[in-house]
Design brief:
Layout (H helix, E strand, L loop, with lengths): L3 E5 L11 E8 L2 H8 L9 E4 L5 E2 L4 E8 L4 E6 L3 E7 L4 H10 L17 H5 L2 E2 L2 E2 L4 E8 L4 E6 H4 L16 E11 L11 H7 L7 H15 L7 E5 L5 E2 L1 H10 L5 E3 L5 E3 L1 H7 L6 E2 L2 E3 L6 E4 L5 H19 L8 E2 L1
Parallel strand pairs: 2-5, 3-5, 4-20
Antiparallel strand pairs: 1-2, 6-7, 7-12, 8-9, 10-11, 10-12, 13-19, 14-16, 15-16, 17-18, 18-19
Length: 338
Amino acid sequence: MEIRENYSLKKLNTFGIDASAEYYTEVFSVADLQELLSEKKFESIPNLILGGGSNILFTKNFAGLVIKNNLNGISLIKEDANYFYVKAQSGEVWHNFVMYCIANNYAGVENLSLIPGNVGASPMQNIGAYGVEIKDVFYELEALNIKKNTVETFNYSNCKFGYRESVFKSELKNKYIILSVSFKLYKTPIFNTSYGAIEKELEAMKVSDISIAAISKAVCNIRNSKLPNPTEIGNAGSFFKNPEIEKGQYILLKEKYPALVAYLLENKNYKLAAGWLIEQCGWKGKKVGDAGVHKNQALVLVNYGKAKGDEIYALSQQILDSVKEKFGIALEREVNII
């Protein structure tokens, strides 16, 4: 393995932030990773696993070892009467995995089309879109215990999934490296088209025979119309989580703001659209230097050219403060801050 020093990460994060790593390397196998972590030189310094670089904001250089995850491969590990069990290595590009599943008629992840990033980040973030989350199709994952340098298996309950959360973002943060993820995918599709504008898009596409491929295409069309392409303008997708509030607070806000966008949850709480809250505070399309809020989606912060990570972070703090002041709601950042 080649270890590089003071390596630029600008092309390895979708915000395009010009940060560098004290040490940088790439791994292509679990054995490579275990060998790397066993080296005494790297035992006492921080490490960062970098996948697609799509959910991270560098506000400074990384004083430690950045490991680019290039673990690749997808395989059908078993099947039963109702499900395909499909295993993907953590370095696989998420959208490529979705396309692989659609090509093989493995149903369940089509609503998650075009989400940036790699497979390894999907359970860590419990990624979700258009009514589907990873926890809905998750089977198990393999992860490397950094301290013991051993591979362990995590089932559904071990992962403690929550909204854009898992055990790997809380109590086990920086203690494990996800190596592979196995999914439980349907043989007979259960079409989920009621969320967002999927049904309208399918109508616009003049789809008469619904399929997982058609849903995927509809989702891609919607995402492309709303979200900026990171190859054209630096961004990390949704920067903020949609907040959850109790019914009493929802009723008070709805009385004051009749156009409030919210969704009733199974626990009787309400999930609010963070983008709507931010837009009402006047941030949509606003620029502060080269940092800004996207003109079509207030949830997305963008780098218009040479913005520094701390400038984008400062903008996000201004947004948090204004939403708190106007609505009394504390938004949370979804993006990992380094």
